[in-house]
């Protein structure tokens, strides 16, 4: 396993609780839209066994052409040891990246794509939208629906409806409005539904989509292939 050590080159305050850490691109480090990585803090591998409390699974919120690796995360006042340390890091501090992979690349199958997310989960979808805006072939259209009770909606400069590009975006601040809209979107029986959020959020969305007649193969999750059956099994979603 290759570990890439790199430095923070910028910290962007997206909102009161959300920050994006922009990292230098180490030589040989590559990724694509929808990628996640293991993001680790200094000292995680100091002992014989890795200190898992200093490692988190994070989405990359940028594309390679932007020149930096973006890690966007919510840090609440009461937070874990990992987030507490991360909050105090500054430009120039080192972090580590390893095991980078994409479970949710943009599928170009001439279908409508629906991006369903909660809060900072939108960071996973930012690169997909940017990739689509650069090259929209074999995608009919994209619709993004995000729910965030804080109302501090993220990346509104990217998630902005653009009829010419067949991109529509929607932000709501409560789950009731969100799930009503998901029901409406699920009327498209041929669409592809990407979902990012907490495990409970995934289960609720999958259950709702299933009840509307959406099949498992139309549902894309930011989970390893071996984890998909757990979320898509009839027992979990019924």
From TrEMBL:
Residues of the signal sequence?
none
Q: Which InterPro entries match?
A: FNR_nucleotide-bd (IPR039261), Riboflavin_synthase-like_b-brl (IPR017938)
Instruction: From the Swiss-Prot or TrEMBL record, give the protein name.
Output: Dihydropteridine reductase
Q: Which organism is it from?
A: Shouchella lehensis G1
């Amino acid at each position: 396993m290759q570990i890439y050590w790199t430095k923070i080159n910028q910290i962007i305050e997206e909102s009161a609780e959300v920050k994006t850490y922009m990292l230098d691109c180490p030589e040989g480090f590559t990724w694509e839209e929808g990628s996640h990585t293991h993001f680790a803090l200094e000292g995680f591998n100091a002992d014989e066994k890795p200190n898992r409390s200093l490692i988190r699974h994070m989405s990359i919120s940028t594309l390679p052409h932007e020149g930096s690796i973006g890690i966007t995360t919510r840090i609440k006042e009461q937070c874990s040891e990992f987030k507490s340390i991360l909050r105090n890091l500054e430009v120039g501090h080192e972090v580590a990246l390893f095991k980078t992979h994409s479970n949710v690349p943009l599928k170009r199958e001439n279908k409508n794509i629906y991006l369903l997310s909660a809060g900072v989960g939108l960071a996973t979808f930012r690169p997909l939208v940017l990739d689509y805006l650069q090259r929209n072939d074999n995608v009919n259209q994209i619709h993004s629906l995000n729910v965030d009770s804080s109302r501090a909606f993220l990346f509104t400069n990217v998630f902005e409806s653009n009829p010419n590009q067949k991109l529509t975006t929607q932000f709501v601040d409560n789950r009731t409005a969100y799930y009503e809209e998901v029901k409406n979107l699920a009327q498209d029986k041929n669409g592809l539904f990407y979902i990012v959020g907490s495990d409970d959020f995934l289960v609720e969305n999958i259950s709702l989509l299933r009840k509307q007649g959406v099949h498992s193969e139309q549902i894309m999750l930011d989970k390893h292939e071996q984890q998909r059956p757990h979320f898509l099994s009839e027992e979990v979603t019924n």
